[in-house]
Design goal:
The protein has a domain of about 70 residues: Cytochrome Bc1 Complex, Chain D, domain 2 (Orthogonal Bundle). A hairpin with a 2-residue loop joins strand 1 and strand 2. The protein has a two-stranded antiparallel ribbon with strand order 1-2. It starts with a helix and ends in a 22-residue tail after the last helix. The longest helix has 25 residues. By secondary structure, it is mainly alpha-helical. The relative contact order is 0.09. About 45% of the residues lie in helices and about 5% in strands. Helix 4 crosses helix 5.
Length: about 140
């Protein structure tokens, strides 16, 4: 019984010491910075397009944009879409996977619109070997 009382005394005592130290140094600590309040977007800016980009999502402006926004960004960020590059078959396979495993609803006629948009603006980029370097002053390394 004495051991339990002693343990409780140590815990309470430790907490009191913590409070005393915290109060002592709180006067020295700078005040925490308050995060800036971000204003809600204006109703007019909700679907604003600037320089060919949908401001709220970052999607490229094009036919089918709002169908993609309305169907894809209900479940995940637009960044999850824009970071991927797939052809039409791969986008369809991804949609099928989401329907089978992530409870994505049947897109109906919207599926063709969505896949066409994604395959047009978020298809794989052809990247090959870089061009040969030209106009280089080569030098010999001395041993």
């Amino acid at each position: 019984m004495m051991g339990i009382i002693f343990a409780m005394f140590m815990v309470v005592g430790g907490f009191l010491v913590y409070l005393m130290i915290d109060q002592t140094f709180s006067a020295v600590r700078p005040a925490p910075e308050v995060a800036a309040v971000v204003a809600a977007p204006e109703e007019d800016d909700f679907d604003k397009i600037e320089n060919g980009v949908h401001v709220r999502t970052g999607f490229v402006e094009g036919e089918g944009l709002m169908t993609v926004v309305n169907n894809c960004t209900n479940c995940h960020s637009a960044k999850l879409v824009t970071q991927n590059r797939m052809n039409e078959d791969s986008w369809r396979a991804t949609i099928k996977w989401m329907q089978e495993t992530q409870n994505l609803w049947d897109l109906g006629k919207n599926e063709d619109i969505i896949v066409k948009y994604l395959a047009t603006y978020y298809s794989p980029e052809k990247k090959g070997r870089r061009q040969n370097l030209t106009n280089i002053d080569w030098y010999v390394l001395e041993e």
